[in-house]
Design brief:
Layout lengths: L3 E4 H4 L3 E2 L2 E2 L5 E7 L9 H17 L8 E7 L4 H14 L4 E4 L3 H14 L3 E3 L12 E3 L4 H16 L3 E7 L2 H16 L3 E8 L7 H10 L3 E5 L4 H12 L6 E3 L4 H7 L7 E4 L8 H14 L11 H17 L4 H8 L4 E3 L2 E3 L9 E8 L5 E10 L11
Parallel strand pairs: 4-5, 4-6, 6-7, 7-8, 9-10, 9-11, 11-12
Antiparallel strand pairs: 1-5, 2-3, 13-16, 14-15, 16-17
Length: 385
């Protein structure tokens, strides 16, 4: 059975005019992959959510009501997500869902969101063009992330031929379909495109195909977490040493891989080295709250923190937690967070500053260049302003 746990200490942490918050809590459901492919990154996502809730409660909650987080394990997949979404929406009766999930989990959960008519903020980078009257997205899409890597490989290394490797599900295939089109539109050629199931861990045959093709550069798009680790380690063990762009790795996972990730290129909307007052304050607050247990904040966890604040602002603008007024308000509010100004006003998606980075031997990421306010492109035209 899926485990559903309530972060009750977060729900009662706030004070209102010196008195503990006693109003009915506003319940935010967080379906996330505590097990399965996303289990490597899920703890950092939960920590970011817990910090946001604790900060909001300490300032009096939302409309004078405490925030209560209900975290559910979606198993990083479709079946687990269906159970988690059903439980959160219809048994726990949450006021909103805010979650970083695999695309398989999101796609399985969306029909349940539509049936339950609950506001849903999706906080994971993904393959794009997932639309619902009840969903907003505050993370990057291919139009914002692929170009910096491919352009750098072509300009810096003269790369003209590419090999693509991914996990066989919506995110892996969607990201690499966009990458193939981008490479070809810019005069390059894709020599091979290979996939392994999400839970697959033996990349030997695919790496052999890669070596036989002898491309100028490699780009991968696997399920965040475990597949990133297994593929990268096997690439290094096989002696693959060509420009390598990873469309799915977060900074925290890169740090855990250390020298195995060295030389890997990533494009992200968040890196811990971002020189912003809001980012420094966020990192200090995370360190103070979690201490030695702190998981590295990253491009999958920081959008979760910001999304909870965006929901707070939308509820306050609407003056209610009723779903439709909150949905209407979500496009109008903005939050100045660790990544900058975040506003989900571009067809329910978010213009973002993107950073091209290279992983060093110790797993740290050096920023090579940045791109201001990159538009997400045409994602959900039915929601265009």
């Amino acid at each position: 059975m899926l485990g559903i746990r309530i972060a009750s200490t977060v729900a009662v942490a706030g004070l209102l005019a010196g008195t503990a918050l006693a109003e009915e809590p506003i319940k935010i459901g967080i379906p996330v992959g505590l097990s399965g492919a996303n289990s490597v990154v899920a703890p950092s996502v939960v920590q970011s959510a817990e910090l946001a809730a604790a900060e909001i409660n300490a300032e009096g909650g939302i409309l004078g009501r405490p925030v209560e987080l209900i975290v559910a394990d979606d198993g990083s997949g479709a079946q687990g997500a269906q159970r988690a979404f059903e439980n959160l929406i219809f048994q726990q009766e949450v006021d909103a869902l805010i979650s970083m999930e695999t695309s398989a989990a999101r796609n399985a959960g969306l029909p349940i969101v539509n049936r339950g008519q609950v506001p849903y903020i999706y906080t994971s980078f993904y393959e794009g063009r997932s639309c619902s009257p009840w969903m907003y997205v505050n993370a990057w899409v291919p139009e914002q992330q692929v170009g910096p890597i491919v352009d750098h490989f072509m300009e810096e290394y003269g790369a003209q031929t590419f090999f693509l490797i991914g996990s066989d599900y919506a995110f892996g295939r969607g990201m690499l379909e966009f990458t193939r089109e981008y490479v070809e539109a810019n005069g390059g050629e894709v020599l091979g495109e290979q996939y392994l199931p999400m839970d697959g861990s033996d990349w030997t045959a695919i790496i052999s195909m890669l070596r036989s093709a002898a491309p100028d550069a490699l780009i991968t798009s696997t399920a965040g977490g475990s597949p990133n680790v297994t593929l990268t380690r096997q690439l290094r063990a096989a002696g693959v040493d060509i420009p390598y762009g990873n469309l799915a790795v977060d900074e925290g996972t890169a740090r855990t891989m250390r020298e195995d990730a060295a030389g890997m290129y990533i494009a992200a909307s968040y890196l811990t080295s971002i020189d912003r007052e809001e980012n420094r304050a966020f990192l200090e607050a995370m360190e103070e709250k979690f201490g030695a247990d702190l998981k590295t904040p990253n491009d999958l966890s920081v959008p979760q923190y910001e999304a909870i604040y965006l929901y707070k602002l939308a509820v306050e603008k609407a003056g209610t937690t009723d779903a439709q007024p909150v949905i209407d308000a979500l496009a109008e509010v903005s939050f100045e967070g660790p990544r900058g100004t975040i506003q989900m006003n571009a067809q329910r998606h978010t213009p973002l500053t993107m950073y091209l980075g290279k992983v060093e031997d110790d797993g740290e990421v050096t920023v090579i260049s940045s791109f201001e306010d990159v538009d997400p492109g045409d994602q959900c035209p039915q929601f265009a302003n």
